[in-house]
Design brief:
Layout (H helix, E strand, L loop, with lengths): L1 H20 L18 H6 L3 E2 L7 E8 L3 E3 L2 E5 L3 E8 L5 E6 L1 H13 L10 E4 L4 E7 L4 E6 L11 E7 L1
Parallel strand pairs: 2-5, 4-10
Antiparallel strand pairs: 1-8, 2-3, 5-8, 6-7, 6-9, 9-10
Length: 168
């Protein structure tokens, strides 16, 4: 009986978790208004999609630090590459790495100032406490530039941004 209840509870939780992965935050705000009527999957298709960990072609180590910089801050990939970002917070404050367009990241930073301490659950975002490590796998599907930033209050404004250049 207990096992059946746990399975039912997990099944019921799957819908909200899928919704979080599709573009909402734990903490209560949705994607920026600049997304218009695009769904989360349509938006992600503009700069990529969650990658299959079994198809990772390259691992990129990224260090976040209290100098308000990403190390490295510029990364080159090719269309179709699936990259595992292994991210380490070497600082003494919370940092994050969020993939998107610079305009969206700036708008997200405004939302973060309104909701400090918000945790993320989207596949294009990692939020790390001091000393914590995490990873995300992303497939880059379109040529061009994909930005990333730390949207913790004040961090993006201090210059904590970077770019992924996606070659055809």
């Amino acid at each position: 009986m207990k096992k059946t209840f746990v399975v039912a509870l997990l099944a019921a939780a799957a819908v909200p978790l899928a919704a979080l992965a599709a573009g909402t935050h734990a903490g209560g705000h949705d994607m920026p208004a600049s997304h218009g009527n695009m769904s989360a999957s349509e938006h992600a298709a503009l700069f990529g999609q969650p990658g299959d960990p079994a198809r990772v072609m390259r691992t990129v180590d990224v260090v976040l630090d209290d100098d308000m910089r990403f190390h490295p801050s510029s990364i080159d990939v090719k269309v179709g590459d699936t990259v595992r970002f292994v991210v380490r917070n070497a600082g003494k404050v919370r940092h994050e790495m969020v993939l998107g367009s610079l305009d969206e990241l700036k708008e997200h930073a405004v939302q973060m100032r309104a909701h400090p301490g918000m945790a993320h659950s989207e596949p294009n975002q990692l939020n790390l406490k001091p000393g914590q490590r995490g990873s995300m796998v992303w497939q880059f599907t379109q040529p061009g530039q994909v930005d990333f930033a730390c949207t913790e209050p004040g961090h993006l404004e201090a210059g904590m941004v970077g770019q992924v250049q996606v070659a055809p």
